[in-house]
Each structure stands twice: as structure tokens, then as C-alpha cells.
């Protein structure tokens, strides 16, 4: 058995683990990184990257079939499904070198391609190597949650870990789960020429502001996606090419392929956490505000920390703990400034509180400001006028922003900046945006906050009247 010592041991080479490894190694720490599967983790290989690549295929096909509005003749927009998957693979291949073992070894990181498991509070075994570390970071991410539905174990099904390897275009794709992954894949596949039925046990996009979610869901329905809500799947049967999903209320849905997209579960099974005195939680691993576990030498970041499950959160967590691990300085994670987006068309994005959350916490002190895309000149020129922005403002400061529409995932960046830095609405209103841009939606929304204060204020009018009469 080989034994080594290190300053920082990282278990998992997904986005969070890689960020810690790169930062710590380049700032002089001795770093060991363990990865038993693919470098880059879920995001690169099965999640963010391949899903957005496939969404781009669907968008291109849809654009060909709906180009007459721009004076260009509509085309068939036929999709070669296998070629689309080649496109997905090529996108992954282009990004993979950034997450590669070779690159991180170039930073001075000792990369060991084995799964790790605790054997003591500060030791982890990986294959035939035991690593003793001053600090250990668990960054093992999450995997698709496959619920124990009757009959599912006897039926072929896809998850996000297998879908992007599928070469045969589904004739009728059944998707169990109406969250972001389910809805993104539903739209991508309907645009690639598949029939699609989404089966959701509650409300589709139920974690989002219902006013914004309705815009997305109505669009998907208009494109042909069948969305069945309050349809809890209780039994699944059939064989490849002929699958049935039965709901609790007796409804039965038939299709050729099945995608399970009901959520994620933290990857903790292989870690032997109890040997390190690390306490698990319902959604992963129990951590404090500094992302420390019940073993103060061990941190947990990203999906496994049991909070928001987004790649950018894992990267943010990495920055939080690097401050503690490398410099011994206090550093705490917060969530109030964390944005997220669903990459349907129109996109939906959120940062901070929704309208309901803001009103629950701040009551009548909340002002809700709206601005619609159909008043934005660039959106009109692009024929992308569906959607709006909604701002929740308390005492002149935004506490939340919700956007549905074209480039919503880009527009939310400004409000994430505002919330992270406790900015005032006046600072946003003072920004000059180039004309014509979609970004003017943000500027105009801030202006809409001030409009009644300026144009409906009797004292403003009196002052203006006085100046016009008496000031030479």
C-alpha cells in the first residue's frame, strides 16, 4: 500500500473540485485530486454542456421551420439525430482539455484516477494509495435520482447520463419529471421531430414563479409538447419501443422511449463518511455556513453540500473554502445572490427572492416592477417579444429579479451583480445601455421603478413649474 501526505485532498473532479484544485495548487499548496470516473464530472459529460449543445440543435431546426417572418423561406428543418449527437460529442471534446488530467498535472496537482473512501478522520484510500491530508474537500456531485416506481427496473429507460449517447431518434419520448431538465429536453426533442409527453406528479416547473413558468409552458404546448400535470407515476411497463407509464389517477401514457428526470441525489454512497465522523444530511452532507462538515478538517461543496444544485454554485463554493483552507480566514457561503436559469426558449432566470417570497418576508414594503419585452426595440427587430422582467424592490434596493424571455439567462447577470453588492436601483438606472440591445430591458425596468416617482409626484411638478416661471 502506497502512502502519501498532502495539504489539500479533493475527492471529485467536477466543476467544484477542479476549481479548488487549480486555485490551491497555483497558490502554492500541495494538492491531490481523486476522480474515479470522468474528469469534468456531470456538467461537462452529462449535464450543462451536452444539454445546451442538443438545445442548440433543436433551436437551429426550429429556426429553419420558422424563418418566413424574417423574409426567408421556411425549410423542412430535418434533423439527423445521430449527427446531432456527434455535434454534442464534439462540443464536449472541445471543452474537455480545460478539465483534463494533463492540464491539472501542469498546475502541479497529483491526479489519481480512483474513487476515494475515508478510512479515518484525515485519511482517504484510493485504489492502492492512502492519502493523509491536512484538509479534505468532498466534491463528489450528484447523480440522477431514479425513484422506486413499480416495474421501472424491468423497462429500458434513459437518464441524463445515458441520453446523450442515444443514437436512434425517439419516435415518442416520455419524460417523467417536469423540472428544468425535463422541460429543456422536452423542447429540444419536439424541435428535433419527436413526439414528447411530459409526466409530472405536481406542477411543471413548480419551483419557479408561476407567472413566468406559465409563459414557458404555454410556449412548449404551442410547439406540441404534451404536459400532463398532477400525474404521479406509479407503474411502468413494456419493452423497448413500447413503454407505458401509468399515473396514480389511472391515466396511461404510451411512448417509444422513457427519460427519467425527477431530480438528483448526492453522491455519498462510496465515501464511508462515518469513518471520518462526517454526518450525512437528507440531501447530501451536513455543512455549516463555512461549508465545513461535522469533521472540521473536511469540507463539502457543490451538489453534495445539499443546497442549490448548479455548476456555478460549486464554483462559488470553491472560492469560499479556498479562503479558509489556504489563508485561514473566515469565509461563509450565502445564497441570496445566486442566479439560475432554465434554457428553454423563452429562457427563464431568477436571482434572489421571487415575488411570493419577497412579499412573505417584507410584506407591503415590497414594490413589484415589470417591464415587457414588447417595448424593447431590439426584441421587436428580432421577433423575440414574448416575455417580461419582474423586479422585487425594498426601500430602493432590489431583493429579487425574475426574467422570462429572450436571453433571460444573460440579462440576470446584472441583477446578480446588484444583489451581490447590495446596489441601489439608482445605480442601475444610471447605467447607459447601448441602443438597441436586449440589455435595455434591465435599464428600462429600473427606469420603470422611478417613473411614478417623477411623473406622478405633485411636488416634482411644482418644483419644475417654479423653475420655469422664476429661474432666468
UniProtKB/TrEMBL annotation:
Keywords: Disulfide bond, FAD, Flavoprotein, NAD, NADP, Nucleotide-binding, Oxidoreductase, Pyruvate, Redox-active center, Signal. Binds 1 FAD per subunit. The keyword Nucleotide-binding applies. FAD binds at residues 52, 116, 140-142, 303. Transmembrane segments: none annotated. NAD(+) binds at residues 177-184, 200, 263. Disulfide bonds join 43-48. Residues 1-24 form the signal peptide. It comes from Sulfitobacter noctilucicola. InterPro entries: FAD/NAD-bd_sf, FAD/NAD-binding_dom, FAD/NAD-linked_Rdtase_dimer_sf, Pyr_nuc-diS_OxRdtase, Pyr_nucl-diS_OxRdtase_dimer, Pyr_OxRdtase_I_AS. Residues 338-445 form the Pyridine nucleotide-disulphide oxidoreductase dimerisation domain. The lineage of its organism: Bacteria, Pseudomonadati, Pseudomonadota, Alphaproteobacteria, Rhodobacterales. This is Pyruvate/2-oxoglutarate dehydrogenase complex dihydrolipoamide dehydrogenase (E3) component. Gene3D superfamilies: 3.30.390.30, FAD/NAD(P)-binding domain. Residues 7-317 form the FAD/NAD(P)-binding domain. PROSITE patterns: PYRIDINE_REDOX_1 (PS00076). It comes from the Bacteria.
Amino acid at each position: 500500500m502506497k502512502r502519501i501526505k498532502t495539504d489539500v485532498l479533493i475527492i471529485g473532479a467536477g466543476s467544484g473540485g477542479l476549481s479548488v484544485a487549480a486555485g490551491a495548487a497555483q497558490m502554492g499548496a500541495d494538492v491531490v485530486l481523486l476522480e474515479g470516473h470522468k474528469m469534468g464530472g456531470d456538467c461537462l459529460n452529462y449535464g450543462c454542456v451536452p444539454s445546451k449543445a442538443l438545445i442548440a440543435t433543436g433551436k437551429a431546426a426550429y429556426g429553419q421551420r420558422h424563418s418566413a417572418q424574417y423574409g426567408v423561406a421556411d425549410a423542412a428543418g430535418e434533423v439527423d439525430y445521430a449527427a446531432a449527437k456527434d455535434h454534442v460529442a464534439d462540443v464536449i471534446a472541445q471543452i474537455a482539455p480545460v478539465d483534463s488530467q494533463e492540464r491539472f498535472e501542469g498546475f502541479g496537482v497529483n491526479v489519481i484516477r480512483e474513487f476515494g473512501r475515508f478510512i479515518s478522520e484525515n485519511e482517504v484510500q484510493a485504489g492502492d494509495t492512502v492519502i493523509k491530508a491536512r484538509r479534505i474537500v468532498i466534491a463528489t456531485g450528484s447523480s440522477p435520482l431514479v425513484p422506486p416506481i413499480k416495474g421501472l427496473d424491468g423497462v429500458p429507460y434513459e437518464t441524463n447520463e445515458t441520453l446523450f449517447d442515444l443514437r436512434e431518434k425517439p419516435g415518442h419520448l416520455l419524460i417523467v419529471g417536469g423540472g428544468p431538465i425535463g422541460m429543456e429536453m422536452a423542447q429540444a426533442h419536439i424541435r428535433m421531430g419527436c413526439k414528447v409527453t411530459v409526466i409530472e406528479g405536481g406542477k411543471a416547473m413548480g419551483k419557479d414563479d408561476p407567472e413566468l413558468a406559465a409563459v414557458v409552458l404555454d410556449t412548449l404546448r404551442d410547439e406540441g409538447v404534451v404536459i400532463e400535470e398532477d400525474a404521479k407515476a406509479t407503474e411502468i411497463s413494456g419493452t423497448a419501443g413500447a413503454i407505458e407509464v401509468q399515473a396514480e389517477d389511472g391515466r396511461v401514457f404510451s411512448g417509444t422511449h422513457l427519460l427519467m428526470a425527477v431530480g438528483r441525489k448526492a453522491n455519498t454512497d462510496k465515501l464511508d463518511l462515518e469513518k471520518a465522523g462526517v454526518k450525512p444530511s437528507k440531501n447530501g452532507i451536513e455543512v455549516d455556513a463555512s461549508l465545513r462538515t461535522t469533521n472540521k478538517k473536511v469540507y463539502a461543496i457543490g451538489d453534495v453540500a445539499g443546497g442549490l444544485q448548479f455548476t456555478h454554485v460549486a464554483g462559488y463554493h470553491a472560492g469560499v473554502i479556498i479562503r479558509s483552507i489556504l489563508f485561514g480566514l473566515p469565509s461563509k457561503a450565502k445564497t441570496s445572490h445566486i442566479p439560475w436559469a432554465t434554457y428553454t426558449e423563452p429562457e427563464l432566470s431568477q436571482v434572489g427572492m421571487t415575488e411570493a417570497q419577497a412579499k412573505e418576508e417584507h410584506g407591503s414594503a415590497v414594490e413589484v416592477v415589470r417591464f415587457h419585452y414588447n417595448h424593447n426595440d431590439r426584441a421587436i427587430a428580432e421577433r423575440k417579444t414574448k416575455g417580461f422582467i419582474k423586479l422585487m424592490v425594498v426601500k430602493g434596493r432590489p431583493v429579487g429579479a425574475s426574467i422570462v424571455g429572450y436571453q433571460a439567462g444573460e440579462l440576470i447577470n446584472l441583477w446578480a451583480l446588484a444583489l451581490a453588492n447590495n446596489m441601489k436601483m439608482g445605480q442601475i438606472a444610471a447605467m447607459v445601455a447601448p441602443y438597441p440591445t436586449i440589455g435595455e430591458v434591465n435599464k428600462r425596468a429600473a427606469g420603470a421603478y422611478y417613473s411614478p416617482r417623477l411623473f406622478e409626484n405633485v411636488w416634482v411638478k411644482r418644483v419644475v413649474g417654479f423653475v420655469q416661471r422664476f429661474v432666468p
